[in-house]
């Protein structure tokens, strides 16, 4: 089994520095372009199916990458982004900070101890639902010889990859994945191996890291 795990393309809220979570934001013009560049790079990958978060920014990214391939695309709530609850839509950078917490930087610096809004979701809860998805997926007998596109989100992608990483202390593995970054995972006899990490197929001029405690 080969898994191509992709983060969605850019959105206006990425650019504006607003918490998206499970809000159904849309790809912006650049996000669509980056998804198309990625689709061109992956045009010869023989995808058998795709699985996507139902949120539009992930689903449209998957549709662009799959292009004209006549393969099914399934939605799964378990690979939605982390829910920030009532904090969604609020500014999260120094210049536009609106979050009613002095400890939001823990999301980047100490994510496994991050305390969300009362109606939000912890990183651990995200890890549990994405683990359930991942373990169910890799055990499906009919998928063992398949090549699968998985379209998700920055934090949810890192949670998914905890089923692959050997170092579980470093949740972010350096950073939030860039928009349209692709992680390629090979699964053989239930054992997962990371073949490519955070691969982007567009130029350095388009590489923008919008996230981090210093933002």
Structure, described:
The chain has 215 residues and is of the alpha/beta class. Helices cover 27% and strands 16% of the residues. The chain has helices spanning 12-16, 29-41, 56-66, 106-109, 123-139, 154-161; strands at 2-7, 49-52, 73-75, 147-152, 182-188, 191-199. Helix 2 (29-41) runs parallel beside helix 3 and helix 5 crosses helix 6 (154-161). The mean pLDDT is 96.
Total number of strands: 6
CATH superfamily: Phosphoglycerate mutase-like
Which architecture would the CATH scheme give at its second level? 3-Layer(aba) Sandwich
Which term fits the overall shape?
A: globular
Rg, please? 16 Å
* Domains, number: 1
Distance separating the two termini: 38 Å
Overall CATH class: Alpha Beta
Poorly predicted runs: none
Neighbour order of strands in the largest sheet: 3-2-4-1-5-6
Largest sheet: 6 strands, mixed
Structural class category:
alpha/beta
Proportion of helical residues = 25-40%
Query: How much strand?
Result: 15-25%
The residue-averaged pLDDT reads 96
Order of helices and strands: EHHEHEHHEHEE
**What count of helical segments does DSSP give?**
6
CATH topology call? Rossmann fold
